[in-house]
Structures are given as C-alpha cells and as structure tokens.
Amino acid sequence: MAYARRFNGRAAIAACRIPQGRAMKPDTHPDYHEITVIMTDGSSFTTRSCWGKPGDTLRLDIDPKSHPAWTGVQRIIDTGGQVAKFNKKFGGLGIKK
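The structure assignment produced for this chain is given below.
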C-alpha cells in the first residue's frame, strides 16, 4: 500500500516503463503452449502450460475428484509395490497379542 501511495498516477506508469534502448533478454521465458489433461475418471480438458511439447497429453494419477483431501475418503494407492515392500520390511514390528 505504501508503494501505491508513493507511486500514484503518472509516476506509477513511468516507474513501470522499460527505458529506451533496453529490451527484455530473448529466450528467457519457457515455451507456453496448449496441452490436454486427462483426469482419473477419463474426463479431459485443454489448458496452456510449459509442460511437455505442444499437443502432449498429461494423465493424472490423483486429481481433486479422487484426492482424499477433497473427497474425505482415505485409500491406499500402491505405486510399484511400495506398500507391500514396507509391510515386508516392517510388518513384524507391530504390537503382538
């Protein structure tokens, strides 16, 4: 807010201008293009991103429709047997009855 008070009106516009003869550096920004995003339920939409190449498809493993933070339902997603590997390694450490 102090910035807005200090640079009001024309002073703010003049402060934001690039001086004559000084332009932005070329090739500093990533390529921004359209991609297709496919959700876990199969629905898809098109958005702009710098991920991949133009026209690529991004398939989501977890999205707002399936993530426990939004659904309130907990489920274990075993990627590459990580849960089985954990249970094999630490399964015997539980409380024995």
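Interim note for the steering committee: Confidence is low (pLDDT under 50) at residues 1-5. The two ends are 64 Å apart (CA to CA).
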